[in-house]
Write a structure and sequence with these properties.
InterPro entries: G6P_Isomerase (IPR001672), G6P_Isomerase_C (IPR023096), Phosphoglucose_isomerase_CS (IPR018189), SIS_dom_sf (IPR046348), SIS_PGI_1 (IPR035476), SIS_PGI_2 (IPR035482). 49% of the residues lie in helices and 10% in strands. The protein is an alpha/beta fold. The N terminus is likely disordered. The structure holds 6-O-phosphono-beta-D-fructofuranose. The site of 6-O-phosphono-beta-D-fructofuranose has 13 residues, from loops.
Length: 556
């Protein structure tokens, strides 16, 4: 925003913010000259720049920001009516304007009386869907639904992609110690036949149940994978009734589901007012519930609801999702850092970076305002990450010594899930050490002194010291969980969902559509038809040549 603050946008609402942007831009000029560690001369910094909410603890004292700068961001948020916008979302206003939909994933994890207040009679559908989920879990676990010959169902394959995949995958991985039903869960997303073969090799056709998750029930990858698994299962089992008995669907498109052969009884609803990437809390979570049981699934939702309550009730200055969003905006737009690293120091959270890549970048990777005007500022950063400590032996070299500053979110559970307590201590030590190292860096003088202490002569010091300096000054958040439980995972996912929403409000975009993804889908079909010999005028000569090479090689 600093460079672009002068390009005043004309429509009502957008011009209001320009004085704030200019003010923040000039504060940022000053911040750029500052070392984060110098801010710690304030003895109360850690107390002032940390908070607890919904069982999570956030330390943001290692951000390059002062109380005054944060207050300026928050007062800008107030001018953009952030609080009112939060209320609108939770009340079910049609805030997804381009798709004319409400955004109500939060109501899925709310108590019945809240559901009733927001949805009125529609609340009954939620309760019915929840009962249907519980019934399916119960029938599969108790053996009421079993293989043709009465053998118990042993495996479940969930087929879905994008928002119908990432949340399930992340929660299944994170909550492995809570897998308690005895069912073995597998998840299939990619259209790559290699991924399909890998899954099929693990599955006994006769005792596998399948859940197809697709809001539209038209998504190419999901439909092709579902058709291939169907054929394989019918062939392998020799049981023509297996689809009707052992397959389930979660979708809004009931006609397509029944045309596929899945019974109405086995079809769970989705609603237009739940976006795919925010849908884990709905019947989309069925595969998760089949692994962890309904009680643990409710605990996950309770954790998310606790964060929802905090988000709605806490003052902006003490509101964890709001603060996370403001820090992200400060880094992205004012300090001009284009990336954001997500670094869970927890093997169980290894799928989280991928999940956040989708929720964040698919939501906020936009360049026009909700009013349809070109934005004069950047929106979502490039989100990437990996579990620690693996990340330290991969891309973190660049974070220490390249010219780019990449803000990080470190996430760690204080109690480990394994019996290897010393391993956990070493893991946590590495997490804390990285945020420290990225903030402090190493000056030339320090590098010289170290070399000297190690016995190097002047010539060697002169040559090598510069290679051993590190820029430091990398801002980070550290999020602490007491332990990784269904509740803390629910709170963590809801925290990021709300952070994304707040940033969307600040950037004045619609975070809940994803038209960009559609272009790829359309062109994908075009390319496919060209590969089958059809004409396609839209394709460039490069793509045409690539197709020709494919056809030649595929035939030879
Ligand atoms: O990635 C684009 C997207 O449209 C997501 O929003 C959605 O979660 C995913 O594809 C899958 O869509 P569906 O649930 O309709 O199969």
């Amino acid at each position: 925003m600093p460079r672009h603050g002068i390009f005043l946008l004309s429509k009502k609402g957008l011009s209001i913010v320009n004085q704030d942007i200019l003010n923040l831009s000039s504060l940022a000029e000053n911040a750029r000259q500052r070392q984060i560690h110098a801010l710690f001369t304030d003895p109360d910094r850690v107390g002032q720049f940390s908070l607890s909410a919904a069982g999570l603890f956030l330390d943001y004292s290692k951000q390059n920001i002062t109380r005054g700068e944060l207050s300026s961001l928050l007062s800008w948020a107030e001018k953009l009516s952030l609080k009112a916008k939060v209320t609108e979302m939770f009340a079910g206003e049609q805030i997804n304007v381009t798709e004319k939909r409400a955004v109500l994933h939060t109501v899925l994890r709310a108590p019945a009386k809240v559901q009733q207040a927001v949805l009125g009679e529609g609340a009954g559908e939620l309760a019915a869907a929840e009962r249907q989920m519980a019934d399916i879990v119960n029938k599969l676990c108790s053996g009421e639904i079993s293989a043709d010959d009465g053998e118990t169902i042993s495996h479940v394959l969930a087929i879905g992609i994008g928002g119908s995949y990432y949340g399930i995958k992340t929660a299944l991985t994170a909550l492995k110690p809570f897998h308690s039903t005895g069912l073995q869960l597998e998840v299939l997303a990619n259209i790559d036949g290699g991924a399909l073969m890998e899954k099929l090799a693990k599955l006994p056709a006769k005792t596998t149940a399948v859940v197809v998750i697709s809001k539209t029930f038209t998504t190419q990858e999901t439909m092709l994978n579902a058709a291939a698994v169907k054929t394989w299962m019918l062939e392998q089992s020799g049981d023509k009734d297996i689809i009707a008995r052992q397959w389930f669907a979660v979708s809004t498109n009931l006609d397509k589901v029944s045309a596929f052969g899945i019974s109405r009884e086995h079809t769970l609803p989705m609603w237009d007012w739940v976006g795919g990437r925010f849908s884990l809390w709905s019947a989309v979570g069925l595969p998760l519930a089949l692994a962890i049981g309904m009680e643990n699934f409710s605990r996950l939702k309770a954790g998310a609801f606790a964060m929802d309550e905090h988000f709605q009730q806490a003052a902006l200055s003490e509101n964890m999702p709001v603060l996370l969003a403001m820090l992200g905006i400060w880094n992205r737009n004012f300090l001009e850092h284009g990336c954001q690293a997500i670094l869970p120091y927890d093997h169980a959270l290894r799928a989280l970076p991928g999940y956040l890549q989708q929720t964040d970048m698919e939501s906020n990777g936009k360049s026009v305002s909700i009013e349809g005007e070109a934005l004069a500022w950047q929106t979502a950063p490039v989100v990437f990450g990996q579990e620690g400590t693996n990340s330290q032996h991969a891309f973190m070299q660049l974070m220490h010594q390249s010219q780019d500053i990449i803000p990080c979110d470190f996430i760690v559970a204080l109690q480990g899930a394994s019996d290897y307590h010393h391993h956990h201590q070493v893991l946590v030590a590495n997490c804390f050490a990285q945020s420290e190292a990225l903030m402090l860096g190493k000056t030339l003088a320090q590098a010289r002194a170290e070399l000297k202490a190690a016995g190097a002569g002047d010539e060697e010091i002169g040559r090598f010291a510069v290679h051993k300096t590190m820029k430091g000054n990398t801002p980070s958040n550290t999020l602490l969980l007491d332990a990784l439980t269904p509740e803390s995972l629910g709170a963590l996912l809801a925290l990021y969902e709300h952070k994304i929403f707040v940033q969307g409000v600040m950037w004045q975009i619609n975070s809940f559509d994803q038209w960009g993804v559609e272009l790829g889908k359309v062109l994908g079909n075009d390319v496919l038809s060209a590969m089958a010999g059809g004409e396609s005028e839209q394709l460039s000569s490069s793509t045409t040549m690539l197709i020709e090479r494919f056809i030649k090689q595929a035939r030879s």
